[in-house]
Amino acid sequence: MLARGNRITRGADYRSVVRGGSRCAAVHTVTYVVTTSEDRPARFGFIVSKQVGTAVTRNTVRRRLKAVCSDALSQVRPGTDVVIRALPAAASADFGLLRAEVTRCLHRRAAA
Q1: What residues have CB less than 8 Å from 79, skipping those under 6 apart?
Q2: pLDDT above 70 for 112
Q3: What number does CATH give the domain 4-109?
């Protein structure tokens, strides 16, 4: 699980990452990354809309993405903000596939 310091919680922060970040698209997710020179831990945010499915499905997808990011936290540069948008296809994706997509995008954009 991600600690509070590793989560994006404000809407303005979400908007700035999505609008100004570099984008990495995959089949089940879209990952936005902004790297800053701030001395703080990397932060992650998740966008899982109602198009993904019911509340149970959305929460399952969100928990899977949080687990992937928690594992990848040590490989992301400090000061980096990452927002992951789950696409509707993420509802039927297994954990390994989501992990492979997110890890590939993080290595491409935010590797330490």
Answers
A1: 35, 36, 37, 38, 39, 40, 42
A2: no
A3: 3.30.230.10
